[in-house]
Amino acid sequence: MVAVGGGGRRRRAWRWAMRAAASAVLWTAVVQLASIAGLFRPRVLADCGGGGGAGGGVGGVAGLAALAGEDTGAARLSPPALVPKRIYKSNGYLRVTCNGGLNQMRAGICDMVTIARHLNLTLVVPELDKRSFWADPSDFGDIFDVDHFINSLRDELMIVKELPLKLQLRTKKRLYSMPPVSWSNETYYLKRILPLAKKHKVIHFEKSDARLANNGLPIQLQTLRCRVNFQALRFTPQIEALGRKLISTLQRSGQFVVLHLRYEMDMLSFSGCTHGCSSKETEELTRMRYAYPWWKEKEIDSVVKRLQGLCPLTPEEITLVLKALGFTKDTLIYIASGEIYGGERRLAALRAAYPKIVKKEKILSPDELRPFQNHSTQMAALDYMVSLASDIFIPSYDGNMARVVEGHRRYMGFRKTIILDRKKLVELLDLFQGGALAWDEFSDAVKEAHKSRMGQPTERRIIPGQPKEEDYFYANPQECLGSNGGLRDIS
Asked: 234: closest CA among 140, 329, 368, 124?
């Protein structure tokens, strides 16, 4: 009886195990079929919020709500189905080492995707600059959502996280590296770069900044640059979550202005702009410039450069400009920047005029910011998100962040961005401070100079043969913008 009872239990256990295995197989099949079916759904890039979004992967009104952490209907939808893969014969692999800060690298990545697509190359996820002034050890995946980057562009090109093992071993011994010629058009890449890629199988671009022309490119290349910038380059969930908290906190206080105050040590040193600095500070900034052999311009006349409008405004100058533009004392101002050169001493005049000045370090706790400390690009990503969501964005210098944010805000519906005419402002500031202009005259002149510099629709300036002097594509990607704040379909 005991033996028979034991056999019955074993048979029941065996039947139970078989049923469990069958159920597992059935559910696996259901999941696989659902995934396959998803590939053939209509192509929807739901994360773009009606046409735009990166940084936070959002754009337009719905995008701003998502940035602020509001519960929208779009946010509750299931993730969009993967777009179908583009099938093509790859002509080789493109490896890229980006150079510069976050936004210089961001624009470079957009260019590199566009070039790889144009040449039918397989792109390896870009490597980020770790040797610049900031010495940030962050990798691409520490800043951007790698899987989203790869999957959202799979109908355009293949992107891989690393080279196949065979090519990894080969490139350790020999890798063809070069910096492409700056401001080049699509013909240069087809005639000069494509044959090299086919010959060497792997080609390495050791610089990514300004490698594509601003103008004269086919519309499909220009709109792809926009698609990468506004849809594919989404920050990591950790950065997005903290950025949304910053934005939500600021918006609870009402409208707010973001002042991108580019008065930082590296900017002043490499530009040679020392207006308002002591002789000791001027010597320190000069020593730093000479300490970096890759910075070619060593002897710089600060006075001449300032009069040409090529220096960032000082905190004292920006205080007078904000007053002249009509910003009142109760304006909430978020300072987007790294450490201000001279610290609180240089911010004294600005803080006296505008007591409601805040930075991310004042809004977030040390514990919240600790994972981002010593990672300047990740900290800049937080400022980028806040800059996109602000009611008004004002950069004190037209560096990479200022220009890329300006273009992104145009894409989000021509949100107000005050692009300061520094050459005119320096002239007016010197006249006012020298007593040649009364305050009302100074204020009226400042307002008049900026009536058409508020981020409204405008044509990108083209100067044949002088690409550096043209308006930058990423500051005004007009091929991707509607004339009245609407967004063109770039998918």
From this structure: 140
Phi, psi of 38 (to 5 degrees): -65, -30
Listed residue (463, 478, 479, 490) closest to 183, CA to CA: 463
Q: What is the sign, positive or negative, of the torsion defined by CA atoms of 85, 86, 90, 95? A: negative
Does residue 25 have a pLDDT over 70?
A: no
d(CA 307, CA 323): 21
pLDDT digits (tens, 9 = 90+) for 331-340: 999 999 888 9
Q: For residue 231, what are its two tokens?
A: 């849809």
Phi, psi (degrees; rounded to nearest 5) at 48: -90, 0
Q: To the nearest 10°, the Cα dihedral for 429, 471, 263, 108?
A: 180
| Token pair 């000479």: residue | 290
412 with 52: CB under 8 angstroms? Answer: yes
Whole-angstrom distance, CA of residue 265 vs CA of residue 379: 17
Cα–Cα distance, 242 to 369 (Å, whole number):
9
CA–CA gap between residue 145 and residue 233 (Å, rounded): 7
User: What is the C-alpha separation between 392 and 455, in angstroms, rounded?
Assistant: 10
Task: 134-140: list long-range contacts, CB under 8 Å, 24+ apart.
Answer: 134/101, 134/266, 134/376, 134/377, 136/374, 136/375, 136/376, 136/377, 136/378, 137/375, 138/375, 138/377, 138/378
Q: pTM of the entire structure? A: 0.83
Take residue 481 and report the two structure tokens written for it: 């913008």
Q: pLDDT tens digit string along 63-98?
A: 454 554 444 444 445 566 788 999 999 999 999 999
Q: What confidence tier does 28 reach under pLDDT thresholds 50, 70, 90?
A: very low
Q: List, in order, residues 6 or more apart from 275 with CB less than 8 Å away.
A: 302, 303, 306, 311, 314
Contact 316, 352 (CB under 8 A): no
Structural element, H or E, at residue 177? strand 176-178
d(CA 398, CA 422): 9
| Count of Cβ atoms closer than 10 Å to residue 349 Cβ | 16
